[in-house]
Amino acid sequence: MDATHFPLSIPLRLANLLHELLIASTLERRAGSEVVQVKVATQRCPLAKGLVSIAALVNSAEETPQPVSTHIKGTIPSWINGSFLRNGPGKFEFGKDKYSHWFDGMAMMHRFYVKDGDVTYNSSFLRSDSYTKNSEKDRIVVSEFGTIAMPDPCKNIFARFFSRFKLPQATDNASVNFVKYKGDYFVSTETNYMRRVDPDSLETKEKVDWTQYVAVNSATAHPHYGRDGATYNMGNSYGKSGFFYNIVRVPPQETEGDGAKEDVADLYGAKVICSIPASEPRRPSYFHSFVMSENYIVFIEQPIKLDMLKAMLYQVQGKSFNKIMTWDPKCDTIFHLVNRHTGECSAVRYRGEPMFTLHQINAYEEGGCLVMDMCCGDDGAVIGDFTLENLRRGGEELDKFYNSMCRNLPRRYVIPLTVDEDTPMDQNLVNLSLCTATAKKTGPGEVYLTYEELFNDELLQYGGLEFPQINYAENNGRPYRYVYACGFGHVFSDSLLKMDVRTKELKAWRHHGLFPSEPVFVPAPNATEEDDGVVMSVIINPKEDKSTFLLVLDAKTFTELGRAEVPVNIPYGTHGVFNDMNQTAVTVATTHRN
C-alpha cells in the first residue's frame, strides 16, 4: 500500500495503529518542547526595502519549438560549441485551475545553441503525462508538490467523495534538472519518473520508471558522475521493514561492437549499493541531493521531516504534499558516511546541530578527513514558502516576505575518517591547516561536528549564496578553489558570484532589476588552470517585455564577454547543464547535490 493513501474500509488493527502513532507523535512533540531549547537563526544579511516585483518571472510562457536567432552584443568566444540546456516551471494554469506553488508549474525546457560566436534559442514544454492529461481536460487532473487535483466536477457527489481514497498518481512533471545516464539525457524531478529527451530538438521521449530497474520509490534530480562513467543517485524506499535511504549506482554505457547505440532508455545494471535505515521511520527526512568524493558518499539526514501519518490522512483531507513537510529544530543533523566502492556504511554516527541543505558545493579527502562544502540554512521551513501567492506579492508585502526568509550561506564540515575505540574523547580530530571546523568524539561510535563559515562579511551584502557550481569535470571530489553561484539579495537570485574558498574573496556581477539563473562553468579547450573558461547564465528583466539574454562571463576575471539577446519571454528556471560538443566526454556541470 502506498504510504500516501489508505482505503475507506480500514481494518481495525490499522485504525488502532494509526491511533497509537498519533498519541506517540503527540507525546514526542510535548516532551520535546519541554526539554529541548529551539535555536533561532539570527538574521545576518541586510533587510530589504522597495524590492522590484518578480511576478513576471512566474508567469506562463509560450514555447519556441523552432530555433530563433539572437542579437549578439560584445563577443561570444568562438571556441564554445554546444548547448546550454535549462529546465524549470513554465506553465502555471490549465483553464480556470491554477497551481499554488512555484514547483508545480509544468516543465519547460530551454536550449541555447552556441557555435562560432552565434547563438540560437528554442524551447519546448515537456510532453509529460501530467501535461498531456491536464491539456486534454483543460484543468489540473494530476496533483503536484503544492497543488492537489480536485475531483472531476462531472462526477456525481458520491464518485467525487470516493475519489479521495484512490491511490494518488505520482507526477512525471520533470521540471527540476537535466541529468545523464549512460550517455542519454533525461529531465528529472523527485518522484520515481524521469523522461528521456533529445538535447537538440528537446523532443520528449519515453517515460522511465525507476521502480522497474531498482527497488526505490523516488530519486533525486542531482546525481553525481564518476570518472569511470558510472552515475550515482539516491532514492528512498519504504515497506514493512521500515523506511530507507538508498544509494544507487548506474553503470557506465557499454560500448557496442559497431559503435551504434540503441535509441531507448537504458538503466539496466542499476543497483542499490547501500540502504540506510531512517533514524525516525515514522518521520523520515526530506533530501534534495547528497555528497560524493572520490571514495565516499555522505547522506545528510536533516531535520526537514516528512510526517507519514499526515501523508496518509492528507489525501483524504484534500491537502497537498508540501503540507506534510515540517522543520524540526529539536533534531540533530546526521551525516551517514558510506564507502562508495564497497557500499559499507560507517558504524560511526556523525552529528551536528540542526541545519538544512539543498545543494552541496564539493567534497574531497585530505589528511585522513573528508572535507564537505555546502550551502546551509537554519530554517528548513523555507521550502514550503515558494507559493505563487508569495512570489507575486508587491510593495511592502514582498519586502516582508523576503525579510522573513532564511538565507543560505556556505559552510565547511570535516569528517575524520578513522575513528575507533582508541580515539580520544573531546579532542578536535580535525588537523587541517587554516580550518576552523571541528570534530570531537563524544561517546562510543559518536562524533559531533561543528562547521567553518566559508565566507567573510562581504557575502552578507549579497544575501547569501545558493545554486553553487564548480569546474565539475576536473574538480568534483578533489581539492578545488573556486565556486560560482547566485547571490540572493531578493527572493530570486539577483547577482552572480565567484568565490575563492581558500581566501573567501568574492567577485560579483550584479545589476539592479536583473535576475540571473544558476551559473554553469564551461572549461576552455586545453585549460591549464581551474578557472580557465566561461560562466553562462540566463538573465531576466521582469520590467521589460522580451528582454531576456544569455550572459557569458570570463570565469577568471568575472567580467562580461558578451550576451545573446532573446526575442521571447523566459520564466525563472531551476537548473541546467552544458552539453559540450568539444569534448568526447560531455561536460555535465550540474548542481550535484529545485
TrEMBL record:
One of its GO terms (molecular function) is metal ion binding. Fe cation binds at H222, H288, H359, H575. Keywords: Iron, Metal-binding. One of its GO terms (biological process) is retinal metabolic process. InterPro entries: Carotenoid_Oase. The keyword Metal-binding applies. GO terms for cellular component: mitochondrion. It comes from the Eukaryota. Binds 1 Fe(2+) ion per subunit. Its cofactor is Fe(2+). Belongs to the carotenoid oxygenase family. This is Beta-carotene 15, 15-dioxygenase 2, like. It comes from Gadus morhua (Atlantic cod). The gene is bco2l.
